[in-house]
Amino acid sequence: MGTKEEPSKDKPPSRRRGAMGTKPLGPVSNLEEHVRPDWWRRIFNSIYLKTDADVVDNQNNTHKEVDLFSSILHLSPEDRILDLCCGQGRHCLELARRGFKNVEGLDRSHYLIQRAKAHAKKEGLSLRFREGDARRLPYSADTFDAVMVLGNSFGYFETVQDDLRVLKEIFRVLKPWGRFLIDVTDGTYLKEHFQPRSWEWIDQNLFVCRERSLALDGQRLISREVVTHVEKGVVVDQFYAERLYTHESLHELLKAAG
After folding, report:
1. DSSP code at position 203
2. What is residue 22's predicted lDDT score, i.e. its pLDDT?
3. Average pLDDT in the 145-170 region?
4. SS3 75
5. pTM of the model
C-alpha cells in the first residue's frame, strides 16, 4: 500500500463526483443545517437496505422480534394487525408465514413497499402493503386489533406535533381495547452514548462513514452518512434526524394522544 498523501496547502483537495452524481460536501461544521425537513422521503431506498442490512434484513432478529411482539400483544391469527412504517415488510411477512390472516403494512417509501409486495408474491403470502403517510392513515376508525410501530420508526418528523398526529391516528384506527406497541430507542441512553464518528464496510466494495451530533435544542440526534464505492467514489452523502424520546416524554405524548 502507498503512503497517504497530505493535501496541498495551496488548494483544497478535489471532490470527485460519485457514481450516482453525488458531490460530497466535505467537512461540515453544523450537521443540523443540512437536514431537510422531509429527509425521510428520500433515504429509505436500496442504499438504506445495504447500510442497515445487518439489522433490518436479519432473519434471526426478525424471528425473535416477532416472537416477542406477538407475546406482548397476545396476538391471535384472527386479529387485524397494522405494521405502521413497515419498511420492506419483514415483520408483516413473518406474521403471515405463521398463519396470521389479516396483516397489513403501510410505509411512505415506494421502493420498500414494492420490495415488500414482491417478497409476499414470491412466497405466496396473503397480506396487504400500502404506501401512505402515518399522519393521515387511509383506514376507518376502529379497524385494527393491534398496531405496531417497530424498529425505531418514530420521531422522524421535524416537530413533536407531527409525532402527536401519528399517535392520534393510531388511536383512531384502533378498536376499543385495541393494543399498541411502539419499539423505540431510549433517548437518554443515546444522548450519553452516541458515537460522534464511526465507519464500517458494507460489502467488498462499499463502506459507510457516519458523523453524529445533537441538535441545538438537544432533542434530536443528527446523523450524516457518506457511502463510498472503492472504485466509483461517493455514492451517497445524506443527512437525517431522529427525535430522542425518554420514557417520560413518550409517556406524556401517549397521554396527549389519548
Report:
1. S
2. 59
3. 96
4. coil
5. 0.86
Distant-in-sequence, close-in-space partners of 159: CB < 8 Å, separation ≥ 6: none
Least confident residue range of 53-57, 123-127, 139-143, 146-150? 53-57
Closest CA to 196 of 208, 177, 173, 214: 214
Residues 6+ away with beta carbon under 8 Å from 150:
65, 69, 83, 85, 86, 91, 181, 183
**Count of all residues that appear for the chain in the document:** 258
Cell of 139: 383506514
Rounded to whole angstroms, the Cα distance separating 200 from 197 reads 11
217 to 32, 105, 191, 197: CA distances (angstroms): 11, 33, 12, 20
Cell of 125: 403470502
Secondary structure of 7-43 in the HEC alphabet?
Answer: CCCCCCCCCCCCCCCCCCCCCCCCHHHHCCCCHHHCC
